[in-house]
Amino acid sequence: MSLVTIAALMPQAEKEGYAVGAFNANNLEFVQAIVAAAERQKSPVIIQASQGAINYAGLEQITAMVRTAAQAATVPVALHLDHGTDFNQVMRCIRAGFTSVMIDGSKLPLQENIALVRRVVEVAHAVGVSVEAELGRIGGTEEHITVSDREAFFTDPDEAETFVKATGVDTLAVAIGTAHGPYKGEPKLDFERLEAIRARVGIPIVLHGSSGVPDEAIRQAVARGVRKINIDTDLRQGFTARLRAVMAEQPEEYDPRKLLGPAREALQQVIEHKMQVFGSAGQVRK
Ligand code: G3H
Ligand code: 13P
Ligand code: ZN
């Protein structure tokens, strides 16, 4: 089927109380593994490309790969720009055929973030493209900041209400204790804050930095209104671990297909497990 928007995926996720996985892709093997996992699990799915992914793969190529995979799929697939920071980049993605974009103004002061997001929402909604924004700062595990420093960047529920009303954004990424990249210890999510934000904004919440978050914490986040879950690091690690193992087992092998094929299978398994935890597995019932 044709690519769908994230906004189109949300009503059923809200009704049934599950989250749709948003999996980062930079190349053919990842696109194939993500769609194969969605097919096997009968799950809706979001494939997202970061600005880094677009620089690596090329905007036209990554769009064409995802569109082609979606057209052959029986499950709905959305193509989303992850952490777009530049208005012009967002416009290029919309023109290329992305069905959803994130405009990440989280490093800006509140009013500047609002102004940037409003500008994107106005254009994107005019052409039927969904918009995600970020309030608070999610950051990376590699940034050596203390827990209390990180908490200073958590999303404020009052601000979230103001932000959503002022921007008309479709989904909101929040800072509640997750971070991008591999965690050193176990992340502690601020579920009370999540509940407070959700009660105020009433729109689907997005959880970034979800790799390495224990399955039970993910389930609790979904129960409190998280409807899109971003996963990148767990995919990179699952794929690369298998690739390293195959290369070690078969040091003479030089056919990339024999090395990348098993890594792609391992990746698909990681994704299928996530879909089961998110509750999106089995939700496509045609
Ligand atoms: O949140 C960021 C994603 O994991 C994408 O990472 O910018 O290295 O492609 P990247
Ligand atoms: P992880 O790499 O920590 O899973 O984060 C992914 C993400 O938030 C992409 O936007
Ligand atoms: Zn992110």
Name some characteristics of this structure:
single chain, 8-stranded parallel beta barrel, binds zinc ion, binds glyceraldehyde-3-phosphate, binds 1,3-dihydroxyacetonephosphate, 286 residues, alpha/beta
Largest sheet, described in full? 8 strands, parallel, barrel
Helix content class: 40-55%
CATH architecture descriptor? Alpha-Beta Barrel
Q: How many discrete domains?
A: 1
Strands, total number: 8
Radius of gyration: 18 Å
Main structural class: alpha/beta
Q: Strand sequence of the main sheet, in spatial order?
A: 1-2-3-4-5-6-7-8
CATH topology: TIM Barrel
> What hetero molecules are bound to the protein chains?
glyceraldehyde-3-phosphate, 1,3-dihydroxyacetonephosphate, zinc ion
* Average pLDDT for all residues: 97
Class in CATH? Answer: Alpha Beta
Note the beta-strand portion: 5-15%
Describe the structure.
This protein has 286 residues and is α/β, with parallel strands linked by helices. It has one domain (6-278): Alpha-Beta Barrel (TIM Barrel). It has helices at 6-16, 28-41, 51-57, 59-72, 87-96, 110-126, 147-151, 157-167, 191-201, 215-223, 233-249, 256-278, and strands spanning 20-24, 45-50, 77-84, 100-103, 130-135, 171-174, 205-207, 226-231. An 8-stranded parallel barrel has the order 1-2-3-4-5-6-7-8, surrounded by 10 helices. The longest helix is centred in the last third of the chain and has 23 residues, at 256-278. The protein is globular. 48% of the residues are buried. Bound molecules: glyceraldehyde-3-phosphate, 1,3-dihydroxyacetonephosphate (13P) and zinc ion. Residues 83, 138, 180, 208, 230 line the site of zinc ion.
